[in-house]
Amino acid sequence: MRLADMHIHTTFSPDGKSSMEEQCIKAIEIGIPIICFTDHVDFNSSEINVGRIINKASTNFDVSEYFYEVNRLRRIYNSIQILIGIEFSEPHLFPTEFEDYSSMPFDYILGSIHHCYGSVFPGAKNIEESKAIDEYYNLMLKSIQTCEFQAMAHIDFPRRYFDNWNVSDTIMDEILNAMIKKDIILEVNTSSIMNASDEPLPRYSIIDRYVQLGGRRVVLGSDAHICVKLGNAFSSVVRKLPNTCVIGYFKNRVFYEL
């Protein structure tokens, strides 16, 4: 089946290692016909002046540069479909900024939570694990309930940092039900997969629960910050998804089945 990578970072993100063009070349090389750039939009003060974050601050690049480069690459690499999106962190905390970006012609807006207790999530390792996880999901739930975006990124993101991370079924059901109610799609993020025994973000049991609660549509995202990670483990993950999952992509913020 055709696949789409709906979570890709470039040097327009402060932590991106590959250019948009390098990501396009890699997509063609490995046979991924649809890609979406989702560079970071982050207004948290801990990162506002780091690197090239997409925001309104004059110290960072103009959004027009982002669109210009995508349109340039569309003309050159017309054998693939190049979509333009953003990953907006904690959108509920920055409603004015989120509204500004929502008014722009992005194909796809990916919501995410990266900060907890005032720092990027790894800093939360200094907080009692249960408190950090509760705060993380409180932030996520508020974002889902109050903001309009197409998908929620890596919903068990804390698993990257806590070896024995776990979340109660009650909390996870609340998150999944809120997503389904708002028609916010589940992202299956493969950045956590390094070998055959690894699971995506979220783990398969959470994907199964999403389906049990009535969710069907999913998007795949490698979260690639360097081109060699683009499309990471997609084929193996697709084989393990519930048969009722509908894999797709967004164009002009409309979901299309693959």
TrEMBL record:
Residues 4-92 form the Polymerase/histidinol phosphatase N-terminal domain. GO terms for biological process: L-histidine biosynthetic process. Pfam families: PHP (PF02811). Pathway: Amino-acid biosynthesis; L-histidine biosynthesis; L-histidine from 5-phospho-alpha-D-ribose 1-diphosphate: step 8/9. Its EC number is 3.1.3.15. One of its GO terms (cellular component) is cytoplasm. The keyword Hydrolase applies. One of its GO terms (molecular function) is histidinol-phosphatase activity. The keyword Lipoprotein does not apply. It is an enzyme of class 3 (hydrolase). Keywords: Amino-acid biosynthesis, Histidine biosynthesis, Hydrolase. It catalyses: L-histidinol phosphate + H2O = L-histidinol + phosphate. It comes from the Bacteria. Coiled coil: none annotated. Belongs to the PHP hydrolase family. HisK subfamily. This is Histidinol-phosphatase. It comes from Ruminococcus albus 8.
